[in-house]
Each structure stands twice: as C-alpha cells, then as structure tokens.
Amino acid sequence: MTKVTAPRTGTRTPRAGIRTGARTEPTAGRGAALRVEDAGISFGDFRAVQGIDLDIPAGEFLCLLGPSGCGKSTLLSAMAGFLQVSEGSLTADGVPVSGPDPDLGMVFQSSEALFDWMTVQQNVTFGPRMRGRSRAEQNRVADEFLGLVGLRHCADRYPGQLSGGMRQRVQIARVLANEPGVVLMDEPFGALDAQTRQVLQQETARIWRASGCTVVFVTHDIDEAILLADRIAVMTAGPAASIKSLYEVDLPRPRDESDPAALRLRTKLREDIGEEVRKAMRDQGLDDRGLDGQELDDRLDREAKGA
Ligand SMILES: Nc1ncnc2c1ncn2[C@@H]1O[C@H](COP(=O)(O)OP(=O)(O)O)[C@@H](O)[C@H]1O
Ligand SMILES: [Mg+2]
Questions:
Q1: What is the mean pLDDT of the chain?
Q2: Which pTM does this prediction carry?
C-alpha cells in the first residue's frame, strides 16, 4: 500500500494550521466534510461494498463498525484515495477524492508504516520536508505534534527503539504534521495490549478535540466505538456490504462506559452486529444456532482481536 503521498490537484482552499491550545468547544470548520454517495467498490468481479451513503460533517468523529471482512478497510482506503470507487461518488469538501493526499491522512494498524531508518523527528517531518517546508517550519511541526502525542523526548530515537504504543503515537504525529482535514484510522490500536489501548483511546479523544479534524475510525470493538464516536455506522456483512444503521452517541465526554445509556447502546450495537456475524456464518455454511449470550460475546471478542 502507498505509504508516501503526493499532493493531488483540487480546488479546496488550504486549511489554517491546526492549533493545539486548549479549547472548550469542538472547533467546527477545521476538518473537511466527507460525502459518500451510492458508492460501490469492486475488486475485479467481486463487489466488496455497494450503495454506501455517508455524510460526514467537518469535525465529526465517526466510527465504522462491522463484522470481520465486511469491507471496512476497503471503504477507508477509498476515503484515503488509495482505491477508487467503482460506482457512485466520494468527495472531501466537495472535491472528488482521486488519489492519495496529505490532507487525507491514514493511520494503519501496523506501525510497519513508519520509516525504520529515520528518527522519530524525521518520520514526523517527512510530509512537510517533501513539500519543501523550511527547516524552521519542520522543527515547529515536530515540536508541536510530538508534544501533542507526548513524545518530544523521543525525537532522536528510531522506531525500533520504541514500544508498540509509542510507535502508534509517532504514526499519529506524522499524519497530523500534514495538518490534514481528515484523519482515517484503520483499527489503529488492535495490535496493542489492553492498557496501552486504553491510554491511546483517551489520547485520541484529546488529540481530536485539539486538532478539530474529521476522524473516520474503523474498529471491531464496540466499546472503543462508544468511547470515541459522535456517530457509529454499522456495516452489513459482505459481499456488497452497505451501511446497515447509524447511531448518534449522545453521551457526555469524557465517556463513562458504565453510564446506563452507554450500556443500553452497547446492547443495541451487539444485537445489530451479532445479526450480521450470524449472517456471515450462515453464508460460510457454519451453524449459527445458539450463537447468543456468552457464545456471541466470545465470537465478538475474537473478532475484536482480529482472530
Ligand atoms: N485487494 C483486494 N482484492 C480482492 N479482494 C479484496 C481486496 N481487498 C479486500 N478484498 C475483499 O473485500 C472484502 C472486504 O475486505 P476488508 O475491507 O479488508 O474487510 P474488513 O476491513 O471489514 O475486515 C473481503 O472479502 C476481502 O477479501
Ligand atoms: Mg480491515
């Protein structure tokens, strides 16, 4: 997959740089609005997703949930410009997404996306350097975004000298260094241990508030989605997967997982996704009878771990 992005031509106005000072209200208008209309994506004869409609306002945090293999990464890759929609349209601030763009930043699950031979600072300043920004500007960006992810003290280290959680922070800082309107995250914490995941989830919420960008965050994990999202889009099981339902997460932040409203939402989401997991099992010729209660929990847990 493309790791290095080249600027694409478009007519959107460049955004003002991200400011990371404390703010009390989410800042509307710094992120880009994403619009997906009746979009389909095929691989040869195989239609992975179809009839996708999503209207994501600037600054929203949208989580994309769905059974394993339904097409979450496919849809996210199209939003990043790595894949083209075969039907329908996909636009950012009204401009068709036609290729990779630093304004549409992607954080991958694997920190192999980092350049191992570059220091943390060089990784983070890669985008600005490629765009010919001055040394002073590169230093400002490194300072600002390494500060935001709490890694200023690691600027001169190499990725191989960092923990998995720290490497994911570097990936986030590297994407933010391009001051993108949209940050796309594909199960970014799926490979981390539970404690590190929890810390990074909290940091993601804080960074999103500070940056004002639009975030589309793919996850298997219902609790992660409830913790982070303004809205949760649930996908149907593939092939030809579409958006099954949309949930507003109208809960105060920081989120409290034990809030009765959060628990009710969790139950609804489990039923919704459980139905799709069962459908996927039947399609694979597996017996889905009795897949409820603990068995469904176990199955969803395994899905959440990517097993
Ligand atoms: N490059 C590809 N070529 C062919 N099929 C693909 C390709 N990428 C994904 N698929 C298929 O598209 C479907 C959706 O995959 P993916 O988006 O990775 O699912 P998810 O991220 O929800 O687990 C799967 O059936 C997968 O096998
Ligand atoms: Mg995926």
A1: 87
A2: 0.88
